[in-house]
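Researcher: Structure prediction, please.
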Amino acid sequence: TVDIIIELDGGIVLVERKNSPHGWALPGGFVDYGESYEDAAVREAREETSLAVTLIRQFHTYSTPDRDPRQHTASTVFIATADGSPHGADDALQARVFNRNNLPGLVFDHGLIVDDYFNHRY
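Model: Predicted structure follows.
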């Protein structure tokens, strides 16, 4: 899978998930067969936030077996920038910008990922 930390307006974009597990998360999803991880990150960002992103760099890969309660997945996380206003779409109810001081509780291991990001790990 891929997840994307989208830097926007001094914060990062998070999405409220429509499907289980419900809650807030980084935009992201499964890589399609024959698709590069970079292309998947750009596609998932657009599908869930309605933003056209520019990838800055690969951040880190997270692979703890219990990171996703549905199945064992590994996720490569990218950092990206975008312009505009995020709008939830596809399997995201809404998309909003949060900063490190007003983060909601996050599903999966996204709390760890965001903590690593804000603390400049990796």
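Model: DSSP finds two helices and seven strands in the chain.
Researcher: Thanks, that helps.
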